[in-house]
Amino acid sequence: MRRLFLLLLILLAVYIAYPYWTLYRLEQALLTNNAESLKKIVDFPAIRASAKAQVADGLMERSQ
Question: Are 29 and 44 in contact, with CB atoms under 8 Å apart?
Answer without folding.
Answer: no
